[in-house]
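Agenda item 2: S-adenosylmethionine complex prediction
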Amino acid sequence: MKIDVLTLFPSIFNIIIESSIIKRAIDKGKVEINIINIRDFSDYSNSQVDDTPYGGGGGMVLMCDPVFKAIESVKVDNSKVIMMTPSGSVFNQKLAYDFSKFEHIILLCGHYEGFDERIKTLVDLEVSIGDYVLTGGELPASVIIDSVVRLIPGVISEESLKSESFTDSLLDYPVYTKPRVYRGMEVPEVLLSGDHKRIEEYRKSERLRITREKRADILK
Ligand SMILES: C[S@@+](CC[C@H](N)C(=O)[O-])C[C@H]1O[C@@H](n2cnc3c(N)ncnc32)[C@H](O)[C@@H]1O
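Presented output:
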């Protein structure tokens, strides 16, 4: 899979692509991630990329030309152009799975007041990461990269993905590690029993209980 990120603040992505599972996925050739500065595509003086809104109002609007040129520099037939915007579809695990099957995604990060509306003619999908407004699309794009890359086959173990929260309208079961007793708190006996059938039943009932308690809205 290939991910091209179009941004005005490339350095924000350094930590994401140089750490942990994402770095390993890049090193193993599971994903190629390119961070591209939209400003490099400005033909205006001082590499200007934004201007005041027609009709008045505060803030600056990202101009068509640099953004069109940045998208066109990377877009091919099978690309999906995904715009970060608070007014997009709210991102979730199902969309993360859908995106992980695309061969090439282009993540478009806005800033300031957002994009000139005409830029949407080049966009396949508008995505929001939640009902709040951030200063830029870099954190939303990072959230998408992180959640999508870990779903690419071979990046993390199939076993870890099997019972994850949101994959089958349930939250995950609780997990414990050593020591067996910590400050008087004991690991549930069933997990030490070695009885795989009982452990599976316990985990299933815990998933149901926790989902009912915390997120009854996702239960089918
Ligand atoms: C300050 S916001 C623009 C907000 C816009 N004026 C509005 O009210 O919808 C600047 C940029 O941050 C990004 N952004 C902010 N909040 C976001 C969210 N919840 N999800 C995705 N992108 C977001 C978008 O790329 C947006 O163009």
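Discussion summary: The chain has a mean pLDDT of 97.
Owner for follow-up: CH.
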